[in-house]
Specification:
The chain is an alpha/beta fold. The chain has a single domain, classed as NAD(P)-binding Rossmann-like Domain (Rossmann fold, 3-Layer(aba) Sandwich). Helices cover 42% and strands 15% of the residues. The chain is built from eight helices and seven strands; from the N terminus they run E-H-E-H-E-H-E-H-E-H-E-H-H-H-E. Strands 3-2-1-4-5-6-7 form a seven-stranded parallel beta sheet, sandwiched between helices. Strand 1, helix 1 and strand 2 form a beta-alpha-beta unit. It is globular and about 45 Å long. The two termini are 31 Å apart. Keywords: NADP, Oxidoreductase. Belongs to the short-chain dehydrogenases/reductases (SDR) family. GO terms for molecular function: oxidoreductase activity, acting on CH-OH group of donors. This is NAD(P)-binding protein. InterPro entries: NAD(P)-bd_dom_sf, Sc_DH/Rdtase_CS, SDR_fam.
């Protein structure tokens, strides 16, 4: 697959799954605009890894849930590269909160980053995308996991919204030649996922995966490549669960 000449916006694109996707698509020839929230060191590390063609990587500090920041991200991308071909709203937060634990602040923070941000990034970017453009949203395989514990309620609620956005946004944008799908990783060994989890809990996730291991960011990046290929054009409004066959 070649993405030469394509321009990709990926929020949260400098660490974890986002960094793996940025590196993978850059290797396929794409120009990457990757954002980060506050960790400038992750941007420096990504720039260093992709220094062989630094003209095709731009890292920006940006608030993924802020509409003015989103508008600036879109305008900066157009000013720098002249086009937008692929949008991947990857930035997200994982607040482990059940019904009784969730404060209004928790709720607003989770939905602002995980739902409002992707919604308005797609809204602001889509008018600048030509036929053949692709939007790939990020959900989680945990939305389909029957054994998930109640403290995932807030996080899963935001990702449930993403899955509905995927289905209905595809209906709106498909007539314009823009495909919309979502990828739903299973448990993946990123800093975000591992934070605060006991070894016992991690072992439980691992046992649910036939391969006997957690996913790696590179596993998800490989699935992303499939969904962005020209051959994926007839896949529309779908949530693809990249989870190693995780028992749900």
């Amino acid at each position: 697959m070649s993405l030469t000449g394509k321009v990709v916006i990926i929020t949260g694109g400098t660490k974890g799954i986002g960094a793996a996707i940025s590196e993978s698509l850059h290797a396929q020839g794409a120009s990457i605009v990757a954002t980060y929230a506050s960790d400038a060191s992750s941007a420096e590390e990504l720039n260093k890894k992709l220094s062989t063609d630094s003209k095709r990587i731009l890292t920006l500090q940006s608030d993924a849930g802020s509409i003015p920041a989103i508008e600036k991200l879109v305008s900066t991308t157009l000013k720098t590269f002249g086009q937008i071909d692929i949008v991947i709203p990857n930035a997200g937060i994982l607040l482990m909160k059940g019904l009784s634990q969730t404060t209004e602040s928790d709720f607003d923070k989770a939905f602002t980053t995980n739902v409002k941000g992707p919604w308005f990034l797609c809204q602001k970017a889509a008018p600048h995308m030509k036929s053949g453009g692709k939007i790939l949203l990020l959900s989680t395989s945990l939305t389909a996991n029957s054994s998930i514990t109640p403290n995932y309620m807030l996080y899963n609620a935001t990702k449930g919204a993403i899955e509905q956005m995927t289905r209905l946004m595809a209906k709106e944008l498909s007539p314009k030649g823009i495909s919309v799908n979502a990828i739903a990783p299973g448990p993946t060994a990123t800093e975000l996922f591992l934070a605060g989890k006991s070894e016992e809990l991690l072992q439980g996730f691992t046992k649910a995966i036939p391969a006997g291991r957690l996913g790696q960011p590179e596993d998800i990046a490989g699935a992303v490549k499939l969904l962005l290929s020209d051959e994926s054009g007839w896949i529309q409004g779908q949530v693809v669960r990249a989870n190693g066959g995780m028992v749900v």
